[in-house]
Design a protein that fits this description.
Elements (H helix, E strand, L loop, with lengths): L1 H16 L6 H18 L12 H23 L11 H6 L8 H21 L2 H10 L3 H48 L8 H19 L1 H5 L2 H72 L4 H102 L5 H9 L29
């Protein structure tokens, strides 16, 4: 039995590498070999008698011949349907009216190449970054797409994780079922389609192990790290961009305030100059009127002293207003310079932000592509192999001959032969009808 298990394991490894060798003839030969070995295992209590292994050797030779024929058919190209997917033959063999449309084909190829070049140019990193920086609100749009991609990635990751959990749970149940009934199926010998069910339980055991390892194979730590890194870097870029925008907005507000203060200071200076000018003209007119009239020198001295004090006060106010205008102009120029600096920093950050977002989106897209390909390949390796195996086992079941295991069982029995047995073709016992079934003999 150990040697039989080793042979079946080697056969399964060969079929996993070369599924096209899983032919109905090879499966039938395997079924015959299993039936013979199980029959010899049931007669182990007769160890004192010599066992004829000729039939077992012949069954092994038949299995080898079936596998060899499958390999020969594959190498000779007889099994075309299993080697070429649907549609390749039609595409390669569709000549149509190529001879009449030669020029149109050349023009079509040229247009296709041109479109491909244009698409490649549009999808280039430089073109993508330029488009994002040239649009009004392009950085916000890029960050919004990155946020939507993060939400979408969480949904995909949750689906794959839940899908892997369901596969693992199903694999555990399938493994328990196959192990339980495989042992029960092997207790008897020479049973109809016994090898089919034994092989089926073995394949389900392998499928259960593959399903149990699906979650670890697909939802790896690297996929989680890329997703978390994408979310963290996206938030960093978003915060930096928001702070830079707030700084520019504050700088613009400071420019408006300093401009308003400068306007006020200029208006105050104009008022101070007007007041000084009016005071100077009033003082000049008063001096000329007092000099023309015959007044005393004491009154002239008193009037000129008051005028000079007012004039001095107005001149000081004008100088102070002029000084405040200069300070307001300096503050306004400083705010303008700071606003220009903030705008330049924002433009530089704009380029860095769109480039960073593009790299994050590309990295996340590649990680999602990798896990999607692994998931689909995993499903393909599981269900296509199971479908092929089920189809082969079904074909083997169709080729099953009724009562053949019973005949093999009877011929495998060893012991003395009855002397009073009837010859073949002798009269049946009990008349013309079968006493058990009532059917005519």
């Amino acid at each position: 039995m150990d040697h039989l298990a080793a042979v079946l394991q080697d056969r399964q490894l060969l079929l996993e590498r070369c599924p096209h060798l899983n032919s109905p003839e090879a499966l039938t030969a395997t079924e015959n070999l299993v039936s013979l070995v199980m029959g010899f295992a049931s007669t182990q209590h007769q160890q004192e008698q010599e066992v004829d292994l000729t039939s077992v050797v012949s069954a092994i030779d038949n299995l080898a011949d079936a596998v060899t024929n499958s390999v020969s058919d594959f190498l000779m190209g007889d099994d075309d349907s299993s080697l070429h997917p649907i549609g390749i033959q039609d595409r390669d063999g569709d000549d149509g009216d190529d001879g009449d449309d030669g020029d149109d084909g050349v023009d079509g190829d040229a247009e296709t190449d041109k479109d491909s070049l244009q698409n490649a140019a549009l999808l280039s990193p430089e073109s993508v970054d330029l488009r994002a920086t040239s649009l009004e609100g392009g950085v916000e749009a890029a960050l919004g797409y990155a946020k939507s991609l993060a939400r979408y990635g969480k949904v995909v990751a949750a689906y794959l994780e839940r899908r892997g959990g369901l596969d693992a749970e199903y694999g555990k149940g399938l493994q328990k079922l196959s192990q339980t009934f495989r042992a029960a199926l092997m207790q008897e010998s020479h049973m109809p389609l016994q090898s089919v069910y034994i092989l089926h339980t073995e394949q389900e055991l392998e499928l259960s192990q593959s399903l149990s390892a699906a979650n670890a194979c697909l939802y790896t730590s690297s996929f989680t790290q890329v997703r978390l890194e994408h979310d963290r870097r996206r938030k960093e870029v978003r915060d930096l961009w928001s702070r830079a925008q707030r700084k520019l907005a504050d700088a613009k507000i400071a420019v408006k305030k300093s401009q308003q203060v400068l306007t006020w200071r200029q208006e105050d200076l104009v008022k101070a100059r007007a007041s000084t000018s009016s005071t100077s003209s009033t003082s000049s007119s008063a001096t000329s009127s007092t000099s023309s009239s015959a007044t005393s020198s004491s009154s002239l001295t008193s009037s000129s002293g008051i005028s000079s004090k007012v004039m001095e006060k107005r001149r000081k106010a004008e100088e102070e207003a002029s000084h405040k205008v200069e300070e307001a102009e300096a503050a306004f120029r400083l705010c303008l310079s700071e606003c220009g600096q903030r705008r330049s920093e924002l433009n530089e950050l704009r380029v860095e932000a769109v480039s960073t977002v593009r790299s994050l989106v590309t990295r996340w897209d590649l990680a999602l592509q990798e896990v999607t390909v692994r998931h689909q390949q995993h499903l393909l390796s599981q269900w296509c192999a199971a479908a092929s195996s089920c189809a082969t086992l079904g074909d083997s079941a169709r080729l099953h001959e009724a009562a053949r295991p019973y005949a093999i069982f009877l011929h495998s029995l060893q012991g003395p032969v009855r002397v009073d047995r009837l010859p073949l073709g002798g009269p049946p016992l009990g008349g013309s009808q079968n006493r058990f079934t009532g059917a005519p003999e």
